[in-house]
Amino acid sequence: MEKNVHTSGSVSYATHNQILRHELECAPTFRELFDRTHKWKGTDDYISESAHTITETYDRTMA
């Protein structure tokens, strides 16, 4: 069983949303926000296999 780990520390989901909105100059998508909070900082690697699976499922559903 995987430990539930997030890379955002004490930064809330709402704060990440606001930061991304400012950076992108529009509302971030689910995927952009999920990637921001579920990838190791400075890498393109997800923090867990579960996080990776969620993005694959999301991408298939949205296609």
Description:
It is a single chain. The protein is 56% helix and 0% strand. The mean pLDDT is 86. It has one domain. The protein is mainly alpha-helical. The chain contains 3 helices and no strands. It holds the Pfam family Transposase_24.
List keywords for this structure.
single chain; 63 residues; mainly alpha; 3 helices; 0% strand; Probable_transposase_24
Helix amount, in percent? 55-70%
Measure the end-to-end span: 30 Å
Give the topology string: H per helix, E per strand: HHH
Described by strand count, sense and barrel closure, the largest sheet is: none
SS content category: mainly alpha
pLDDT averaged residue by residue? 86
Pfam families: Transposase_24
InterPro entries: Probable_transposase_24 (IPR004252)
Please summarize what this structure is:
This protein has 63 residues and is an all-alpha fold. The chain has helices spanning 13-24, 30-38, 49-62.
Show the helix and strand layout.
Blueprint: H1 13-24, H2 30-38, H3 49-62
